[in-house]
Design goal:
- By secondary structure, this protein is an all-alpha fold.
- The chain is built from eight helices and no strands.
- Helix 1 crosses helix 3 and helix 5 crosses helix 7.
Length: 212
């Protein structure tokens, strides 16, 4: 099918050939002449195509050098030119091994001292309240707190793990405070709350220990 079946003037022929080449730059002179109904002739179409090619070349050369460079940049990357990796920046905040172990030893030592003193205070209170197994009872609040903390490391945000930590800390604070001011509470109440707290702590700890 041709673009037009009517004879074309020189100006119209030129415009028609240019339009066809804009759509398909690969058309040869015979294809152009055939698409235009034989007018202009193939020779004239070849001349017009050469003119169109030259005009395109002039337009490309008129593009500023930086713009041509920006256009060719993606092509260079496609050919395999890869940007050089940035130099590694030393980690100035890295811990010194000696400082790290000193900090850990200080924390463990302080924790051990606090646990021993808390055990001693709590044991004195439960002995005075007449709680059975007074040697083991003070360990329940501390072990509940440790179980909750270890569970939080594996399951961050788990509600029962948070409850275990808060319950262990609150129980330890309450028992240590009452050990210093025994007149604030009746020993029968201490014994009651102890008997209720121990099985609750046991169930919660077993649940946290078995949670996958």
């Amino acid at each position: 099918m041709t673009v037009t079946d009517a004879p074309l003037t020189n100006g119209d022929a030129r415009a028609a050939v240019f339009r066809l080449l804009e759509g398909d730059p690969g058309m040869n002179r015979d294809q152009l002449s055939e698409a235009l109904g034989g007018t202009p002739k193939p020779r004239r179409c070849g001349i017009l195509k050469a003119e169109w090619t030259a005009q395109r070349g002039d337009q490309a050369s008129a593009v500023p050098a930086p713009a041509r460079t920006a256009q060719r940049a993606p092509e260079r990357r496609i050919r395999g030119t890869q940007p050089q990796p940035a130099a590694a920046v030393p980690d100035v905040g890295a811990d010194d091994p000696l400082e790290k172990w000193a900090r850990r030893l200080a924390a463990w030592g302080l924790s051990a001292i606090a646990l021993v003193m808390s055990y001693s205070h709590t044991k004195g209170l439960v002995v005075q309240a007449g709680v059975s197994w007074p040697t083991l009872m003070p360990l329940t609040v501390d072990l509940l707190m440790v179980t909750g903390w270890l569970s939080l490391r594996r399951h961050p945000g788990y509600l029962l793990a948070r409850l275990a930590v808060v319950g262990g800390v609150a129980g330890s604070l309450a028992l240590n405070g009452l050990a210093a001011r025994t007149e604030l509470v009746a020993m029968e109440d201490v014994r009651l709350w102890t008997y209720l707290a121990v099985p609750t702590a046991a169930v919660l700890s077993v649940h946290l220990a078995l949670k996958r």
